[in-house]
Specification:
The protein has 261 residues and is α+β, with helices and mostly antiparallel strands. The chain has two domains: 125 residues, DNA Polymerase III, subunit A, domain 2 (DNA Polymerase III, Chain A, domain 2, Roll), CATH 3.10.150.10; 114 residues, DNA Polymerase III, Chain A, domain 2 (Roll). It has four helices and 17 strands. The strands form two sheets. A twelve-stranded antiparallel β-sheet has the order 6-2-3-4-17-16-15-10-13-12-11-14. A five-stranded antiparallel β-sheet has the order 5-1-7-8-9. α3 packs antiparallel against α4. 34% of the residues are buried. The model has no long low-confidence stretch (mean pLDDT 93).
């Protein structure tokens, strides 16, 4: 294609804007993109919903119907009405994350209901937004999960990888048996055996068990950076909250699996 015939990106003067540091932008993308849906069955979930809160923070939110990820982030400048939200495509955020260091120190994100622009340093990036309404996820986030379990993040990741390695199922289910001081992880029994592992935890309540898709657990554990993580549970069939023990700005909600073994 001749240079003169190549489509030129025209940057617009858009009414809404957010100025955010590059490091914060990378964190917001990393901590939400994994929970966005990857197929086109529900187009309004194929990205991250960006909105603002009453205390002038940005809210980045994603869900695929089985799990949710949310991070609240203060920004350098916010010109964004509280009642507005936009859905940024997964593919666009993947490319922005890949090129993030070219933006320099800060990024100006400007948008209207149609398009969004990322501008800073040596690069400008423009994308169409996803049309449609993002679901109200506030009722999904539990408010009464009273059982708290503190787990070393690296130990949990290693144990999950060991236990889930034997599973041939797409869901890679894992059962967590939780008692005072001990977390026991079990794989589903296969023709060639099963895997069991135990790690120490901080928990003082009554014993209970709960099942999860191990990949969903690993996806969220990998993006959290603290040494320990906190699981907040109610019972074996209610959504569980996973968050850092040192940073309350991020949380993930995962629906449990029914485990019959």
């Amino acid at each position: 294609v001749e240079v003169g015939l190549y489509p030129q990106t025209v940057l617009e003067d858009l009414p809404q804007s957010v100025t955010i540091s590059v490091e914060d932008l990378k964190q917001c993308i990393d901590m939400t993109l994994f929970a966005a849906i990857t197929n086109e069955s529900r187009r309004n979930l194929m990205g991250v919903c960006l909105s603002s809160t009453s205390d002038k923070q940005t809210r980045w939110l994603s869900t695929d119907g089985h799990r949710l990820a949310q991070i609240l982030k203060s920004v350098d400048d916010l010109n964004f009405s509280e009642d507005q939200e936009v859905i940024v495509p997964r593919k666009a955020l993947t490319e922005v994350r890949r090129a993030a260091d070219l933006f320099g120190q800060t990024v100006v994100i400007s948008f209207d209901e149609r398009v969004m622009q990322f501008t800073g340093g040596r690069i400008s990036f423009k994308t169409r937004l996803i049309e449609g309404k993002f679901p109200n996820c506030d009722p999904i986030i539990p408010k009464d999960n009273t059982m708290e379990i503190i787990v070393n993040r690296e130990s949990f990741i290693n144990s999950l990888r060991i236990v889930s390695s034997i599973s041939s199922e797409k869901l890679r289910p894992v059962k967590l048996l939780i008692s005072q001081g001990v977390l026991k992880l079990e794989s589903e029994k296969a023709d060639y055996g099963e895997v069991v592992d135990e790690i120490e935890i901080g928990y003082e309540g009554d014993p209970f068990q709960i099942g999860f898709n191990s990949r969903y657990l690993l996806d969220v554990l990998i993006v959290i950076e603290s040494e320990d993580i906190k699981l907040e549970c109610k019972n074996s069939m209610s959504p569980t909250i996973i968050k850092s023990t040192v940073d309350e700005s991020f949380l993930s909600v995962i629906m449990p699996l029914r485990v019959e073994w």
